[in-house]
Amino acid sequence: MDRERFEELVERALLALPEQFSERLSNIDVEVKDYPSPDDLRVARARRGQTLLGLYRGIPVTRRGLGYNMAPPDRIIIFQRPIELTCRSDDEIVERVGHVVRHEIAHYFGIDDEALRRMGAY
Fold first, then answer.
1. Tell me: the pLDDT tens digits for 92-109?
2. 83/96 Cα distance (integer angstroms)
3. Closest CA to 107 of 57, 36, 52
4. Which of 76, 82, 102 is nearest to 15 (CA)?
5. Cα-Cα-Cα-Cα dihedral of 83, 106, 14, 37, to 10°?
6. Span 52-73, average pLDDT
7. Pick the CATH number of 3-118 from 3.40.47.10, 3.40.50.300, 3.40.605.10, 3.30.2010.20
C-alpha cells in the first residue's frame, strides 16, 4: 500500500474516535514510519523477534501536572510495514490500523498494556 493511502487510514481512524476522546486530544503528533528504529524498540521494551506496530512516546494525560506546559508534543508513531506484514488483505490493514491507533490513544490517556489486556482490548 502506498504511504498516502496508509496515512489516510490513520487519519480516518483518528476521526472515528468517540468525541469524548477526540475532543480531549491536545499537544500530540501522529506520524507514520516504515519501521521502528532501534530506539523505538528499546523504548517499547520490545523483545527480540517481537513485532512493533505502533508506539506512544510522551507523558500520559494522567501523569501531567501543573508543570506540564510548553512541553514538546507527545508522539504516536504507526509503523506501516509491520502492519502490512501481519495482514493478508487491505481490509485487514484497515482494521489493524484502527486497532493500533486506538491502542496508542489509550496509552495517551494513561491506560497501560496490562489494563488493556484486562479490558480485552489487546
1. 999 999 999 999 999 999
2. 7
3. 57
4. 102
5. -40
6. 89
7. 3.30.2010.20
